[in-house]
From TrEMBL:
Pfam families: Phage_integrase. It comes from Allocoprobacillus halotolerans. SUPFAM superfamilies: DNA breaking-rejoining enzymes. It comes from the Bacteria. Keywords: DNA recombination, DNA-binding. InterPro entries: DNA_brk_join_enz (IPR011010), Integrase-like_cat_sf (IPR013762), Integrase_catalytic (IPR002104), Integrase_recombinase_N (IPR010998), Tyrosine_recombinase_XerCD (IPR050090). The keyword Metal-binding does not apply. Belongs to the 'phage' integrase family. PROSITE patterns: TYR_RECOMBINASE. This is Site-specific integrase. Residues 167-380 form the Tyr recombinase domain. The keyword DNA-binding applies.
Length: 384
């Protein structure tokens, strides 16, 4: 039993320092000595009693972590081992440090739903992306904490994701396609867009199309990989598995064949002559395997292709043209391919296979009633 500076009995586990501050100590369920400090004797007795009670209530929990300590452990031992890109991991770490780190030095078992909600709302004031990243991070790390008996429940699970302003997906009309291709000042850009419309490849599959995936004699391409979204730690882009982790065959129509033959011939000539030799030190290791490359002879990035497409699209708009398709993106070409395949009489199962979908149900989201088909079908009303 401790004594105060004036010699009075303070109670079990309580002592008083020379500066007058009271110190209460106890051993928790894990055998670790814990300390509580306060300037008021009555209050420290209450805090000690509450701490011992809370520790007993956590009898089923096997570890003690602060929120920050658990994030660091989770990030290092779980997230990094999932094979995510460096850029993705940096984004998670950056947003946690920005919005959570300052308030994360608390017992993880005392982190409440309302605390998480406040943090997410703070991030949402900056951007929806930041808010969603923080919400997703907190939910994932708390779920692992729950599975490891560090907390009794995932208090972040009930926080709803913020609804996104989803754009309406539409295919290109023939008129839109003609104007888009007309706005191309670079033959390569024109070929990439037209090839994408005629094959329905994902943008990462198009940019990662390599010589060994092409069979011109049998008129098909064998999609077995896609290009990474971000470079690795050495600044190199690399091949990774397709989205569904399955390879697939995509047949080539005559237009796609012409485009592919032209670009393979051009690319082989560039490699033989070393047209981009002065840039070779900056190239990704896979650049020599690619059919479509940028002006430096290196990997064409997603951001680069999006920028090119935006410029081409805006040229027609500046000239007064109004697209039937309101939101044109690289993914629009995939929707266009799917819609035209169905209109040509293909079964949903075949279209699903060509797109590399895991289910026909997903494919149906890619099929729309194009304006061209709608105008043709209207004529049929006379037969009713």
């Amino acid at each position: 039993m401790g004594k105060g500076l004036n010699g009075t009995e303070l109670g079990a586990g309580i002592s008083q320092r020379k500066d007058g501050i009271y110190c209460a100590r106890y051993v928790n369920r894990l055998g670790k000595r814990k300390y509580i400090y306060d300037s008021n004797l009555r209050r420290i007795k209450q805090l000690l009693k509450q701490a011992i009670k809370e520790d007993k209530e956590k009898a089923s929990l096997e570890y003690d972590y602060t929120l920050n300590q658990w994030f660091d452990f989770w990030f290092e031992n779980y997230k990094k081992k999932e094979g995510m890109s460096r850029r993705y991991l940096e984004n998670i770490s950056h947003n946690y440090d920005l919005y959570v780190r300052d308030v994360g030095d608390i017992d993880i078992t005392k982190f409440k739903n309302i605390d998480a909600l406040r943090i997410v709302k703070k991030a949402l004031k900056v951007s929806k992306t930041a808010g969603e990243t923080v919400r997703h991070t907190l939910t994932q790390m708390m779920e692992k904490a729950f599975l490891n008996d560090i907390v009794r429940k995932n208090v972040c699970k009930s926080i709803d994701a913020q609804p996104r302003n989803k754009t309406i997906k539409q295919p290109l009309s023939k008129r839109d396609e003609k104007m888009l291709l007309k706005g191309c000042t670079n033959q390569l850009h024109k070929d990439m867009i037209e090839f994408n419309i005629n094959t329905g490849l994902r943008i990462s599959e198009l940019l990662g199309l390599s010589f060994d995936e092409v069979d011109l004699d049998k008129k098909f391409i064998y999609i077995k990989h896609q290009i990474s979204d971000y470079p690795d730690d050495n600044g190199n882009y690399f091949f990774r598995e397709t989205k569904t982790k399955n390879a697939r065959y995509v047949p080539l129509n005559e237009r796609a064949l012409i485009i592919l033959r032209r670009n393979i011939k051009l690319r082989q000539k560039q490699l033989e002559e070393g047209t981009h030799k002065r840039y070779y030190k900056q190239h990704s290791d896979i650049s020599k395997e690619l059919i479509f490359v940028n002006t430096r002879g290196d990997c064409f990035t997603r951001a680069g292709f999006h920028s090119v497409l935006a410029y081409i699209k805006d040229r027609a708009i500046e000239d007064g043209y109004r697209y039937d398709c309101k939101n044109i993106s690289p993914h629009t070409f995939r929707h266009t391919f799917a819609t035209r395949c169905m209109e040509a009489g293909m079964t949903p199962n075949t279209v699903s296979t060509l797109l590399g979908h895991t289910s026909v149900r997903m494919t149906l989201h890619y099929v729309h009633n194009s304006i061209d088909q709608f105008n043709d079908d209207i004529v049929l009303i006379e037969s009713i």
